[in-house]
Amino acid sequence: MNGDLERLVLSGEQIQQKVKEAAAWLDERFAKADTPPLAICVLRGSVFFFCDLVRTMQTPVQLDFMTVSSYGGSTQSSGAPEIVADLSASVQGRDVILVEDIVDSGHTLVRMRELIEGRGARSFTAVTLFDKPSRRQVSVKADFSCFEVGDEFIVGYGLDYDQQYRNLPYVGVLKREIYEKKN
Ligand code: IMP
Ligand code: MG
Predict the structure, then answer these.
(1) At what angle do helices 47-56 and 12-29 cross, to 10 degrees?
(2) What pLDDT is recorded for position 65?
(3) Of 25, 40, 167, 168, which has the maximum CB count within 10 A?
(4) Among residues 52, 95, 101, 104, which one is catalytic?
């Protein structure tokens, strides 16, 4: 385990097991879709979850990407997520599957939903790898959440602290001393 971690939360195998459940849930939901849903990866945190999820699904989907930044080099959301890079496809009339890494304050998910519904999507389904309900500032819930976590800062499998630790193949709690030095 990486030395900056206090403890392991999930192994790669545990994550893959849940990815299968999330993919099966989406396959069932979109079994009767007449056109392929558009799966949107919210970069950068959901990159590995997104890739594993869409490759496990049986339903044909199209893919698009959006880069959203909410943190800077902190562990607290700014409350005003910024769209750094927008989608290339139009969401007008599409069934959209938004794939998030973690719903924390909820600001990012609310912003994404307003944006995508505002652009005329036919439906909006949010799937998140992690949910931190104790930290919510705005009332919002993903349609499918893989794991619930407490008020701890986690990294790995896409999740970062100041752009580090994303490529760890597992998820763990970051030692407080790592971010308390800086924040
Ligand atoms: P929200 O807008 O506060 O819900 O924040 C969502 C974003 O905050 C996520 O997409 C993550 O990038 C980041 N985030 C929240 N909690 C954590 C965490 O425990 N580890 C790493 N990133 C986190
Ligand atoms: Mg992040």
Answers:
(1) 50
(2) 98
(3) 40
(4) 104
- DSSP annotation of 7: E
Q: What percent of the chain has pLDDT over 90?
A: 90
Any ligand 1 atom below 6 A from CB of 149:
no
Q: Which residues pair with 99 in a beta bridge?
A: 41, 127
Nearest CA to ligand 1 atom 20: 154
Q: What are phi and psi of 101, to 5 degrees?
A: -80, -50
What's the whole-number mean pLDDT along residues 68-90? 83
For 58, counting Cβ atoms within 10 Å of its Cβ (0-12 exposed, 13-18 middle, 19+ buried), the class is: exposed
Contact indicator for 145, 128 with CB cutoff of 8 Å = yes
104 flagged as catalytic? yes
Q: How confident is the model at residue 181 (pLDDT cuts 50, 70, 90)?
A: confident
Q: Judge whether residue 73 has pLDDT over 70.
A: no
Q: How confident is the model at residue 81 (pLDDT cuts 50, 70, 90)?
A: confident
Question: Pick from 146, 153, 37, 171: which is nearest to 91 by CA?
Answer: 37
Cα–Cα nearest to 129, from 163, 98, 94, 89: 98
Closest alpha carbon to 38 in 99, 110, 100? 99
* Closest-CA residue to 28 (of 147, 146, 144, 145): 144
